[in-house]
Design brief:
The complex is a heterotrimer.
Chain A lengths: L2 H35 L5 H5 L2 E2 L4 E2 L2 H32 L4 H15 L2 H15 L6 H25 L3 H9 L4 H30 L2 H4 L21 H11 L5 H32 L3
Antiparallel strand pairs in A: 1-2
Helix pairs in contact in A: 1-11, 3-6, 3-8, 4-6, 5-6, 6-8, 7-8, 8-11, 10-11
Chain B lengths: L7 E5 L6 H8 L16 E2 L2 E2 L5 H7 E4 L10 H11 L5 H14 L3 H4 L12 H14 L4 E5 L7 H14 L4 E5 L3 H7 L2 E6 L2 E7 H6 L4 H7 L5
Parallel strand pairs in B: 1-6, 1-7, 4-5, 5-6
Antiparallel strand pairs in B: 2-3, 7-8
Chain C lengths: L1 H16 L1 H17 L8 H6 L3 E2 L6 E2 L2 H32 L2 H16 L2 H20 L7 H25 L3 H9 L4 H12 L1 H17 L2 H6 L17 H8 L8 H32 L1
The chains are: A mainly alpha, B alpha/beta, C mainly alpha.
Chain lengths: 282, 225, 288
């Protein structure tokens, strides 16, 4: 009789092992980067331009470039993504068109990031003649994070109980008034979460900006949105593969800043989500 | 069937007999469901409601739902919502109409000092009266009640029923209820629905004392349902 | 006036609703626009099955077979590692783990999904690559194997979260029924839960593999970038994605090399499209 239970114990042991094989390395990665990267962080590293062919100085232009890119991406993607989510949650009916839109979103989310880079190069840099610029990069990143924003916003909108909509309509409000005054305000935490996750994704991606914006070595701040810019993830790539003899501390420091930026955004998103779930009144 | 102004029509019948669907057809809330099909016509003041502007129709025909459903806003904003959506901005006019509506809903004295609190802090009965006040604030001609007391205790139920009888003076009321006795207490006329079909419609005392259809008799005497 | 404003807004909403379809088509069109120009010069067959990739030789030789094989090898390696571990982890989280530990584990998986690929590539370079080099006594640790391990890691969040959802969506009655018949927890998982969730798990695996094929930065940093037909998993390889990322910077706009890189983009787009549509079908089959 003990046989099935022995099998179960062995099986559960392997399941646990599989889980640890994922979770432990994740912890190790974070620990290594924090341990080796944190000592590199100081005012000069964060606020100075890179010097001596990126072997010294700081990473300020890369930080600023990433902030510009991410801001641009969100300015482009949030309105479109939010309206698309409103369409899916409030207006669409179960038909072929809706099915097609959902399929398109899934595909947009699955397109390899380097293909977005190609697309941005062909459309924005070459066809629209924006050149390699913050504008081209932002638009490329914006399209890339569109599915994240649509999916998260749609979930948030759909989680608003339909009874609220009925009450609002029964009081003589129009459909748009109902969306604007009842549905949207109650979906904001979820939309915010999705937006921040999109921001984190845009901040960490390298491949889409390789040919649309990134400057290999540009030790100054960008002047306008038609200017090239450095960006944190690309900078990390450059100093860890393209430039010999970069101090290890600089590499880890850059990795730390990038990781911290992305993780802080994710943590904020998670905090908003959990807080909202607890506070939910219905 | 005809519904006259300033009367209460009670609609009774077992669950899934089409009472609520009937009610939601009257203010076209049924339009929201993709599977909804309607045949025949509903007229208000001799006009087909499908030809009226749906927002104006819903302002004329208010609705109170089965469960108290306050919007996630303050007490004040709950009542103000319908008025605001009509484009009324004047603060003084708003305050006046809200006080009036809350008085009519027998709620003013209980909430006048806490209008800025969340509507969710009210008790169930208070919430339901808030919903009635909210509907009144839009100044409708007809009010639809969809089992308004199904979630309430007897005391709160009595308060809501009193309010309904009082409201009859100014409004036309259609009351859907699971509670046969409630229909007998407040209805001028009563309609009996069964399996999506109107079985009988008559003066309330006739329905309860001398029903024409055997099924009506069986239902009100508790043989089924 | 208000009616007119709302009319405009609702049209705008419809327009944005269609934006995703518009962008997918736009991406495909622009890849075609730039990529198809190659086939005026080179035959598609020679492009797909040509054995050598020397884009800057004179005349350029643009066969992507080594790159396709590189991608396949790395992907296959990653799948072998990530599928059992990922599905196992999903089962553990969904079925075995106590509630509080479950939240911690899920946070860990989300954390992994959030780490930028260039950071993972960097970490792979400084930890995994020397490890592989020393373990197998190789001249370099930049190999397909290193890439596979790193990519397996990156595929896992996708596999775990989707497989976990699939397990959750198995009706509770199945499980209760099995328990009522006296099955152990593991027998229930193995005989009832996994088969019932199989199409969702299949979708999870496919989307994980899709993620691996499309992954660029980490793979470029740790697979060694040798555009030759791989002889073993311990040799350096170069994938389709890494080729685009590494060479587009130097390719002259309008040159054969430029067109060829876009043609690779078409190949990648078609692969990811096929994977996503199939996975979506699997997920929908599960729902109906």
């Amino acid at each position: 009789m003990s046989h099935p239970h022995r099998t179960q114990n062995i099986a559960f042991f392997f399941l646990l092992l599989a889980t640890l094989l994922i979770v432990v390395p994740v912890g190790l990665i974070v620990v290594i980067i924090v341990q080796k990267g944190l000592p590199a962080i100081n005012g000069q590293f964060l606020l100075d331009i890179p010097r001596q062919g990126m072997r010294a100085g700081g990473i300020f232009p890369a930080i600023v470039g990433t902030v510009y890119l991410v801001t641009g991406a969100i300015i482009f993607a949030l309105p479109i993504g939010l309206l698309a989510a409103i369409y899916l949650s409030e207006y669409s009916r179960e038909n072929m068109l809706t099915r097609l839109i959902k399929l398109a979103i899934v595909n947009l989310a699955g397109v390899p990031s380097v293909v977005y880079g190609l697309f941005g190069l062909a459309l924005f840099v070459v066809f629209f003649k924006f050149g390699a610029s913050i504008l081209s990069g932002s638009l490329t990143l914006g399209i890339m994070i569109l599915p994240i924003i649509i999916t998260a916003s749609r979930e948030a909108l759909e989680s608003v109980p339909s009874s609220f909509r009925e009450v609002s309509l029964s009081l003589g409000a129009s459909k748009w008034q109902t969306i604007r005054h009842i549905v949207l305000p109650n979906a904001i935490p979820g939309i915010l979460t999705g937006t921040i996750l999109g921001l984190g994704r845009a901040a960490g991606e390298t491949a889409p900006i390789l040919f649309t914006v990134a400057a290999f070595y540009l030790p100054r701040l960008p002047h306008s949105i038609f200017d090239q810019a450095m960006a944190l993830p690309y900078h990390l790539y450059v100093i860890s593969t393209q430039v010999p003899n970069v101090d290890e501390k600089t590499r880890y420091g850059t990795a730390f800043v990038l990781l911290a930026l992305v993780l802080v955004m994710n943590i904020i998103a998670v905090v908003i989500r959990t807080k909202f779930r607890k506070k939910k009144k219905w | 069937m005809e519904i006259w102004s300033h009367e209460i029509l009670s609609v009774i019948g077992p669950s899934n007999s089409g009472k609520t669907t009937f009610l939601r057809t009257l203010n076209r809330l049924s339009d929201l469901h993709t599977a909804f099909r309607m045949s025949g016509a509903v007229e208000m003041d001799k006009r087909d409601i499908r030809e009226m502007d749906v927002e104006i129709l819903r302002r004329k025909i208010g609705m109170v739902f089965a469960l108290p459903l306050p919007l996630p806003l303050s007490i004040f904003e709950n009542v103000a919502y319908g008025i605001r959506m009509q484009g009324v901005r004047n603060k003084h006019e708003l305050e006046q109409r809200i006080e009036e509506a809350l008085r009519q809903g027998y709620l003013w004295d209980e909430v006048k000092d806490r209008l800025d609190e969340s509507a969710f802090k009210l008790s169930g009965g208070q919430q339901q009266r808030l919903c009635i006040a909210r509907t009144l604030a839009v100044q409708p001609e007809v009010i639809l009640f969809d089992e308004p007391c199904s979630g309430l205790d007897p005391v709160s139920t009595a308060k809501v029923e009193d309010a309904m009888v009082e409201l009859k003076k100014k409004y036309t009321i259609v009351l859907v209820t699971n509670n046969v006795k409630q229909a007998a207490r407040v209805g001028d006329k009563t309609a009996f629905f069964l399996s999506g079909e109107l079985v009988e419609l008559d003066k309330t005392d006739r329905i309860f004392t001398a029903p024409q259809d055997r099924r009506t008799d069986d239902y009100i005497s508790g043989k089924f349902g | 006036m208000r009616k007119f404003k709302e009319f405009v807004i609702e049209k705008l909403i419809l327009l944005c609703g269609l934006a995703s379809i518009f962008f997918v088509i736009l991406i495909f069109l622009f890849l075609l626009k730039e990529g198809l120009a190659l086939f005026k010069i080179e035959s598609p067959l020679k492009f797909l099955f040509g054995k050598s990739w020397y884009p800057i030789s004179e005349p350029p030789r643009l066969g992507i077979l080594p790159l396709i094989l590189g991608s396949l090898l790395v992907t296959a390696g990653a799948a072998v590692i990530s599928v059992p571990i990922g599905v196992g982890c999903a089962v553990y989280i969904a079925e075995v783990a106590p509630l509080r530990i479950r939240e911690v584990l899920k946070a860990g998986i989300e954390l992994l999904a959030a780490i930028p690929s260039v950071v993972l590539g960097f970490i792979g370079m400084v930890t995994l690559v020397p490890l592989v080099k020393n373990m197998f006594h190789l001249p370099t640790g930049l190999t397909a194997l290193s890439g596979s391990i790193m990519l397996a890691f990156m595929a896992m969040p996708t596999i775990v979260s989707i497989a976990e959802d699939a397990l959750y969506s198995v009706p509770k009655t199945y499980k209760e029924g099995a328990f009522a018949l006296g099955a152990t927890h593991w027998q229930t998982i193995w005989r009832v839960m996994l088969p019932a969730a199989s199409s969702g798990i299949l979708a999870a695996v496919m989307l994980g593999i899709g993620r691996v094929i499309g992954e660029t930065m980490a793979v470029m940093m740790i697979t060694g970038n040798a555009a030759v037909i791989p002889r073993s998993i311990l040799a350096p390889v170069r994938t389709l994605t890494a080729t685009i990322a590494a060479e587009m910077g130097e390719a002259v706009v309008g040159s054969e090399h430029y067109f060829a890189l876009f043609a690779i983009g078409i190949v990648l787009f078609v692969i990811s499209f096929a994977i996503n549509v199939t996975a979506d079908l699997c997920l929908h089959k599960k729902q109906s």
